[in-house]
Amino acid sequence: MERRPARGHRNVPHTADVRIEAWAPDREGCVAEAVTALVDTFVDTTAAVADGETGFRVPPGADADLLVGVLDEVIFRLETEGALPLETEVRAADGGLAVRWRTTGTDAVELIGAVPKAVSLHELRFAAEPAGWRCAVTLDV
Prior knowledge:
alpha+beta
C-alpha cells in the first residue's frame, strides 16, 4: 500500500486536461488542499505574498457538490477579480462550508501551466477513506 503524508496533493497524468488529487484527515482539510492543488497546476506561488483576504460560503449539499462549489469559486474569482488564494481555511457551516482565503493578484505570480476554465464532473471522486478524506478532480483547461 502506498504511504502518504496525512495531508497533501499532486497532479496526475491526464490525456487532455489537468487532474488533481488531494487528501487530508478531514473533509474540510481535503477541500483546502484541493484548492492549493488547483492553483499549483498553473502558477508558481513560491515568491507570492498575500495582500488580501476574502471569504464566502458554499450552501448545504452533498460532499462532492461542496468541493466543486469551492473549486468553481477559485476559477470565478480568478476570471473576474484576478485573485488567487494562497492560503485556504475551510470549516463546516450549517450543512455547507465557510471558506476564508488569503489572496494575491495574478500579476504577482508566474504562469507555469494552462489556466483551468471549469471543474469537470466526469470521474469526480470525494469520499472518506480509512486514512482520511480523498478527492480526485479533472479540470478543463
